[in-house]
């Protein structure tokens, strides 16, 4: 009896083991099937989207140009003491590098050095052109081309520009730089533009968020209180602009707000303003705030409305039957209960506003451009990938932090559209 | 007491005034631009001196605008097909009960929606320049597929959340292969989600301008890209005509979405 029991236990144990193994195998197969379904889009996004952005962001710390173009100079400068004028070996190495490198690469290095010291671009290009025909001793040849090569200062800048990784662009994006001793310090106020741009981006986004909240809250409350066809009509009137092309809405504001546009002519017709002195409503901050608020308002109304819809009206009735004046019932019951919608809408509008480019570019003046404009400027107009990448990194980090907060407060899976 | 009573009566009136003003602010610019597209003169003021269809004529007879329209349609249709196919597959995978790393995978799949479009545009421009995909409709289709797919993933995943996976088991026990079960059981049920995801992807591509600004040359200009130039350089009432046509489009889209949602709700009730 005891033996059979053991036998059975053993047999059961074996069965359980195979069963567990088979189950595990099945589960793994199921997991694999799920991953296979996700794989095509995942691979597509990794190649078309994630990898490009990764490549861009590495440009913000990448400095391999100098080291790749001037390998012997890098090696020779390693033993230099930073103070005395370099000796002939260093000049010879630099000359050899310049002779061996294609013109385009030298031009890249020259552009790069110019970020450190204005004027170094033309100095290096001139040197590279002339040194090709020069012969030893190179020290004299360099000084003959430009006597500044005879001072340690420019060699110091060159040495500073050598490391393959640099915090130069990220610091520059925050209006900082390293001085000759390597310590981080702010740059001269007249050259500092980026902090202003970042602060302006935050200020515009915050103002737009506040305006959207002021306008969106009562509208959401009105829709939530309305019933049936009225509520539905109001909702459609919110969704129609939401679905209308961004450029249509922006162009509409350009048409309306121009000095000879609809708003000014209507105000003149009503006798509110003098027709010869139209209000300046566009290509300034007012235009940006009006157009951006208009475009982002639905993103505020919809989340607040969906939360308000779920607040039972009996709560308010209970409050007033207990003697609460309407304002106090609103302040102590309705407002706190609608807060999840307010924070969801507020965060969403703020995040979307941070990255706006088209609307400020079309209706704003030069003093209203946000960080997006400068990212476009650095990549498109002056081809300074390092700066474009550094500003992108800062914008991206700000947005990701805010989304992490959004995820904590609202839940990213509730990122509903329409 | 009297004071608060009058406030209670006054409150709905105040709310209607405030809400109504906001609705006016939302709708008025869209409404106001429509009549201006029929203006006989190239001004943007009311009252209009006369009516004319000349701006529509200009739009339909201009090679530049027609090329832009054609490009927009081609890119949007291709990007929609691609992102709907890839996005629906991914959403089905993500909503399988045994899908591992679901949170991480979802985060990566919807990242194009979260990353500011200027960062995406510059990144794609930088990478496409290296592989020669700039100034091509193919490059534009790829980029628009990437930013449209998350909308498909989100809407289809949301539809699948209420999908009863026992139906798939029932189909399998009745002898259906997994592919048959998906095609004949799952797809018809999640169709409204797939279609509204596809509409989102289409509109996203059709309205996208920042990426087009970076990676499309003058031959690959899309409608929004052409409008951008129009608003920037010489603002002509042709813009108002294009805007009116696009408003007509968005109204149609909104109607379709509403109809789909109502259909989906009816289905849920049954």
TrEMBL record, chain A:
Phylogenetic classification of the source organism: Bacteria, Pseudomonadati, Pseudomonadota, Alphaproteobacteria, Hyphomicrobiales
What keywords tag this UniProt record? Answer: Cell membrane, Membrane, Plasmid, Transmembrane, Transmembrane helix, Transport
InterPro entries reported for this sequence: MetI-like, MetI-like_sf
> Where does it localize?
Cell membrane
Which Pfam families is this protein grouped with? BPD_transp_1
Protein name, entry field:
ABC transporter permease
The organism encoding this protein is Rhizobium sullae
Q: Which PROSITE patterns match?
A: ABC_TM1
Q: Which residues form the ABC transmembrane type-1 domain?
A: 198-406
Per its UniProt record, what Gene3D superfamilies does this chain match?
Answer: MetI-like
Q: Where are the transmembrane segments?
A: 34-57, 197-217, 229-246, 252-274, 286-308, 314-335, 347-365, 385-406
Sorted alphabetically, which PANTHER family does this protein's record hold?
ABC TRANSPORTER PERMEASE PROTEIN (PTHR42929:SF5), INNER MEMBRANE ABC TRANSPORTER PERMEASE PROTEIN YDCU-RELATED-RELATED (PTHR42929)
Q: Which family does it belong to?
A: Belongs to the binding-protein-dependent transport system permease family. CysTW subfamily.
Chief subcellular location equals membrane
Q: How is this protein situated with respect to the membrane?
A: Multi-pass membrane protein
TrEMBL record, chain B:
TM region(s), chain numbering: 12-38, 73-94, 106-128, 140-161, 182-215, 235-260
The UniProt keyword set, sorted, is:
Cell inner membrane, Cell membrane, Membrane, Plasmid, Transmembrane, Transmembrane helix, Transport
Instruction: Supply the Pfam families for this chain.
Output: BPD_transp_1
This protein's membrane topology, according to the annotation, is: Multi-pass membrane protein
Q: Where in the cell is it found?
A: Cell inner membrane; Cell membrane
Annotated ranges, domain ABC transmembrane type-1: 69-258
UniProt-listed Gene3D superfamilies: MetI-like
- Chief location of this protein? membrane
Q: What's the family?
A: Belongs to the binding-protein-dependent transport system permease family.
Q: Which PANTHER family does the record match to this protein?
A: INNER MEMBRANE ABC TRANSPORTER PERMEASE PROTEIN YDCV (PTHR43357)
The identity of this protein, by name, is: ABC transporter permease
Organism, per UniProt?
Rhizobium sullae (Rhizobium hedysari)
